[in-house]
Amino acid sequence: MTKNVVVIGGGASGIEASRRLRDLGYSPVLVEKEDHLGGHLASWNRLFPQMIPAKDILKSLTSDMKGIEVFLNTEVISINRLKDSYVVKFSNGLSAQVKAILITTGFTLFPAQKKQEYGYGIYDRVITNADLEAWFNGNKDKRVTDPQVIGFVHCVGSRDEKAGNRQCSKVCCATAVKQAIEIKEKFPDAVVYCFYMDLRMFGRGYEDMYLKAQKDYGIRFLRGRVSEVSEDINGRLVVKADDTLLGKPVKISMDLLVLMSGMIAPESNMELSKMLKVLPGEDGFFSPANAISNPTLSNRDGVFFAGAATGPKTMPETLSEGRAAALEIDSYLKRVGD
Ligand SMILES: Cc1cc2nc3c(=O)[nH]c(=O)nc-3n(C[C@H](O)[C@H](O)[C@H](O)COP(=O)(O)OP(=O)(O)OC[C@H]3O[C@@H](n4cnc5c(N)ncnc54)[C@H](O)[C@@H]3O)c2cc1C
Ligand code: SF4
Hints:
Layout: E1 5-8, H1 12-23, E2 28-31, E3 46-47, E4 52-53, H2 54-62, E5 69-71, E6 76-82, E7 85-90, E8 95-98, E9 100-103, E10 108-109, E11 126-128, H3 129-136, E12 149-156, H4 172-186, E13 191-196, H5 206-215, E14 220-223, E15 226-231, E16 237-243, E17 248-254, E18 256-261, E19 263-264, H6 268-276, E20 303-305, H7 315-336
Parallel strand pairs: 1-2, 1-9, 2-5, 9-20, 11-18, 12-13, 12-18, 13-14
Antiparallel strand pairs: 3-4, 6-7, 7-8, 10-19, 15-16, 16-17
Helix pairs in contact: 1-7, 4-5
The chain binds flavin-adenine dinucleotide and iron/sulfur cluster.
């Protein structure tokens, strides 16, 4: 194919970068392993901090894909260096010879069932942040039936050496506060708790969202890790935690527990990194050559990164990196000739 850039991963970062590359005069091929574009954005309902509908962002992102070759249900099966270009073979039988490859493979959610003590997959009324987003999106879920007491557990599979992930997932404190507000809007009489270690409300407007959650919605923030979840004979959840501010253990009966699963690297990054000969970090995310001066550059000529492929990011950060990567690829191709 006469394409000059391959973009691997059709989430927000991959779509934004492909569109910008197209606008700069290139013919990108965008490869997505699922049957739809959008990545995680396609599963979310409203986005913090402004509660903007995710479907509006996705619609505007995908509204004009002219000039971009999109391969759905497709993966890369091999990448070989040929002089100053790469020959990329796809699982759909096609291949492309290109001078630039952009990795936008994003993240996957930590599998909550791995934290057995929280009871996901064991007790009916334990769900994840992604399950709750699906319910907000109108998917039926009998686990969310008129809950009177609801808990949110922060840092599920993040900041957790035993779970194999020391890193903070960055977005899940803000997501928990957002979802706590939203569930309170749906069930105004419910009592809602957030069990947190630290609250990382780092972005502009996030702190206001947290204050609003307390003042306007009466959400109770309890500092301490949940140690155990069980079910009583009536099928209600019994949640035990240590309140580290009061210095005493608490035991609360609940009707719904929402686990804030963190962002981890997709397993397929390993295969991709072998093909590209770019090493991922210890956490499985790709590592830029210089994370300060230019996080879109890898340590290999012609290989670039954008979005959550290099670690947890918010949507605005993801989109900005998609644009930055397109500009960086443009400069590179002007230098080496496309
Ligand atoms: C629960 C939760 C809620 C969030 N809510 C918000 C919010 O309200 N506001 C906000 O700013 N941010 C939010 N975020 C962050 C947001 O989801 C990310 O910033 C964004 O999804 C990152 O986009 P991405 O394109 O980099 O990765 P992804 O969305 O993960 O997309 C990556 C794409 O690449 C594909 N892919 C992966 N590997 C391959 C491969 N080998 N070959 C082909 N395709 C591949 C995947 O199928 C996927 O489509 C939230 C995150 C979480 C976990
Ligand atoms: S953002 Fe909050 S919930 Fe997520 S890992 Fe970091 S501290 Fe834990």
